[in-house]
Description:
Largest sheet: 7 strands, mixed
Order of helices and strands: EEEEEEEEEEE
Number of helices: 0
Strand content: over 45%
Distance between the termini: 40 Å
Helix content: under 10%
Number of strands: 11
Radius of gyration: 14 Å
Structural class: mainly beta
Amino acid sequence: QEQLEESGGGWVQAGGSLRLSCVISGRTYNNYLMAWFRQAPGKEREFVAAITSGLSSEYYRDSVKDRFTVSRDSAKNTMYLHMNDLAPEDTAVYYCAAKTSHRIDTTYTQTYDYDYWGQGTQVTVSS
């Protein structure tokens, strides 16, 4: 059973930046597709960004594409989400997720695509 733990959430003013981290236990982390999702109060959990194994290709939801960057450090079993120019609509609990097997030529943006989840970290952006 893999374990994922997020950190780095907090409160920030609009236009500010935060970096989220997700540490995953597991021997085959490098083979996993890793992703960030978020869930705002009263809304469904939505895809934010993902990074594949191997060449570490990235993809994002449109609303964050020019502001957020996902990366991974294999040596540290850690995935990051660098968030810039934050807006109040980015306020949510952010979750990291892992998918144990995937195709490089396929995008996975649904919650049911993923096998393991962290507990989440709160990000609050004030106007």
